[in-house]
Amino acid sequence: MTTTRAHLTNSCMGEWELYVPTKAPVQDWPLHEFGRTSPVPTQTERAAALAALGYEPADTGPWEWKERDNDFTGCVEFTASLTVRTATGGGAR
User: Are 64 and 78 in contact (CB under 8 A)?
Assistant: First the structure.
């Protein structure tokens, strides 16, 4: 089964969102917006968002977190990623 990476992001100017890059144009990527800047979405919330997008974790590995400085805004941005696959029960992608 093919896998890809799901990404959870929050810039200093934005809200938490989870998206799954596909071969489609960026505007058509599966996306879930959490509608808040804090707190960080829980693992349960992230799993529910993935399921709503038609994906599930590919294994039991943890989310991989990265921190990076945004040279343009001077803020620190946090991103997380997880290997996912199409949900076995389908879903609404």
Answer: no
Contact (Cβ atoms closer than 8 angstroms) between residue 31 and residue 49: no
- Say yes or no to pLDDT of 46 above 60: yes
Residue type, 80: A
φ and ψ at residue 72, rounded to 5 degrees = -75, -45
Share of the chain above pLDDT 90, in %: 65
Quote the mean pLDDT of the chain.
88
CB 30 within 8 A of CB 93: yes
Residue 18: how many other CB atoms lie within 10 Å: 23
Identify the DSSP state of 61. P
Is the separation of the CB atoms in 77 and 9 below 8 Å?
yes
